[in-house]
Amino acid sequence: MKRVYELHKISGFLIVVGMILGIDVSSMAVFIGSKHFNEYFNYPTPFQQGMVSGAYPIGGLIGCVLFAFMGDRISRLGCFRCSALIWLAGCAISVLVINIYMIAMGRFVKGVAVGSLSVVSSIYLVEVFPTNRKGIATVLVQLTITFAIFLMYMACWTFNRFFNSHYAFRISWGLEIIPALALITGTFIIPESPKWFVANEQYNEAQEVLSRLNAASMSAFDREAILNMYGNTSKTKFVDLIKPPYFKQVLIGITIQTLVQFTGVNVLMYYLVYICEMAGLHGNSKMNAASMPYLLNILFTFVPFHFLDKTSRKMLIINGSFSLALVMSLIGFSMWVYGYDVSPINGNPALVWKLTPKGGEITIALCFVFVAIFASTLSCSAWLYTNEILPTVIKTKGLSVCMGVSWLVNFTLTFLSPLMMSTLKWGTFLLFGIVTFVLTIVVWLTFPETLALYQENALDLCSCKTEVGSSNKGSSIPDFDYNDAFSEIPTVYKLKARANLDQFSLDDHDTIAGKYRSSAPSPVYLQQNPVAAKIATHNYNESSLKPESVRIPEQPNKAEKPSGSAKSVDPEKHCDPMMSLQSDKIMMLTLTTISSNLSDVLVEEAVTNDGYRYNNGDVIDLYASRPSAGGVV
């Protein structure tokens, strides 16, 4: 009997991935402040400290680039296995370290593995999990990351206390081998991504995986149904990311990831032990205070479990980042008010600022609040937002670029932080707060909501019924008959158009009036088709959807000037396409959207991807169009 792929098994695999993504984050937090570590490596300079901390994120950047080139070639499971092997190599280097530069090298190699895993796990989750479970799956991965961070911190603290020698960090870093071995084993249990099979035209394999995911007969999914699920699977190049219509979405994803890094969360978590030393904490008091944020990170990551699949991603990011900007600014302000210059603390040249007892209590308490807010908001929502804003056709390369920029910013900040703390001191944290506030304003004013934006998988992979086009509980796409809709005109339309649907008027600029179908794909579907239309609202409201037709006036000869403005059009008189064709000699279009506020559409031409040009008087249905195997025009 053939194996049935169950979501809880795939979730277990993602837990292992989350362990690797988080386990090395806190692997240095205990040791950078320990006496025997600094003595063993001859008290690293601020530059060497920055090199060790920055090697990990710069490796993550290389890992993202590596995945961008190999991700579509060796399959998702192949990427998991390669990343695990790279991780094992990094662990071996870390265990055998003899100088500070080997630590940096080991962290760099492990960073390459984590960078690749951060992208492939994101893509795999989106491609395999149904729409109504992606939020929970995202929280599960993030929760595992936070647990791994805390677990590694406690392991390092325990070994450091009992061994008090170089064996402490060697044993701690050697334990990181375990999740990599589990990851390799798991790749032989979970399925390959059906989206990857479709992209490589392996439809039989995709059919088999989908059937096993649904525990249904293999005849439940034919090739047409699979294509409808995944839409455009054409290959893209990096140069496509800087061209319309994808550039804006990639830029949005990059900005969100940059915002996450500039909140200063990674710097705060990594160098919190420094803040504890500034506050005058020593021994167990310092370790207990430094471990608290890792525990809070776990507890407050449970919060998004209850609302992430229902809450506006954009507003969650805005509220979270604004709160983080405020708290980080307060941290800098309290350090300024209650601090003063001192000689390097414990011989550490990065620590030249001391806090009074009251200032230390306030600052550390604010650090705890900061971590709690981040875990409740940006830790999951920013990651999910970046996934949803990128169309499927560019997701592999687009997400690699977004995550690569995130790792690059992470490297820059962690590398410069010791130098910044030795020069800017309290101003370091105030700078993070100001930049976060500015980026939050940008997100608030210009970014779209993605809660209603879903990829082209019109049927849920794991909860759809056996008939294509049947109702799907939890599906994000309104019900309609895919076979009928897509069999009419299986082409892509290249339109140069703008419309004003609020006034229903025609003038010498050829504005058009239009009405919509009620069964509409998501806005991301329209964005991935070359329809030059601007959606002015992003609110999903089924009750506002109305079937309407579009009148396009006959284009005047270029040598002739339009003879005055056309008369106002009553939309109720133009619902019958044949009546419109006979009386006005116009071309009818059925636009598809969930918005009733499409504005300023001027139709100049309508051309299919196979070169066919529609003339005035022709009837075409954009709702029946879908990307062909050759990709969009």
UniProtKB/TrEMBL annotation:
SUPFAM superfamilies: MFS general substrate transporter. It holds the Pfam family Sugar_tr. GO terms for molecular function: carbohydrate:proton symporter activity. The chain crosses the membrane at residues 12-34, 54-72, 84-102, 108-129, 136-155, 167-190, 250-272, 292-309, 316-338, 362-386, 398-420, 426-447. One of its GO terms (cellular component) is membrane. InterPro entries: MFS_dom, MFS_sugar_transport-like, MFS_Sugar_Transporters, MFS_trans_sf, Sugar/inositol_transpt, Sugar_transporter_CS. Residues 10-451 form the Major facilitator superfamily (MFS) profile domain. It is a multi-pass membrane protein. Belongs to the major facilitator superfamily. Sugar transporter (TC 2.A.1.1) family. This is HDL543Wp.
